[in-house]
Amino acid sequence: MNLLMPVENAKNELRNSKGNALYFKSARNVTVNILNDQTKVLTQLITGPKAVEAYGQKFEVKTVSGKLLFSADNNEVVVGAERLRVLGAEGTVFPKSIETPNVRADPFKELR
């Protein structure tokens, strides 16, 4: 059983007891809102039965060591991994130009 422990010098913090996971259970979704001083929503994370949605000025995915894997904002999407694979029978279509230092096929397969 998880217990919410009071934290000194912290406002509105949820914490599990040491060594135990912290669980949220909901029949519909769990929503986390980050508000400014005027209680306006700055960022929002919604987890539901069919999707996870994130709203904000920027979205980032990082490794545990802090390396950027993926980033998206209104101006660009960045993939920071060493290798980008596009899966699917049809591949992908780029309606405008793309830029890359090299393009290669899988070993022993033609570049199509």
From TrEMBL:
Coiled coil: none
Pfam families: Sarcoglycan_1
Membrane topology, record value: Single-pass type II membrane protein
InterPro entries registered for this protein in UniProt: Sarcoglycan, Sarcoglycan_gamma/delta/zeta
Subcellular locations according to the entry: Cell membrane, Sarcolemma; Cytoplasm, Cytoskeleton
Keyword field: Cell membrane, Cytoplasm, Cytoskeleton, Disulfide bond, Glycoprotein, Membrane, Signal-anchor, Transmembrane, Transmembrane helix
GO CC term, one of those recorded: sarcoglycan complex
GO biological process, one term: cardiac muscle tissue development
Family: Belongs to the sarcoglycan beta/delta/gamma/zeta family.
Protein name stated in the entry: Delta-sarcoglycan
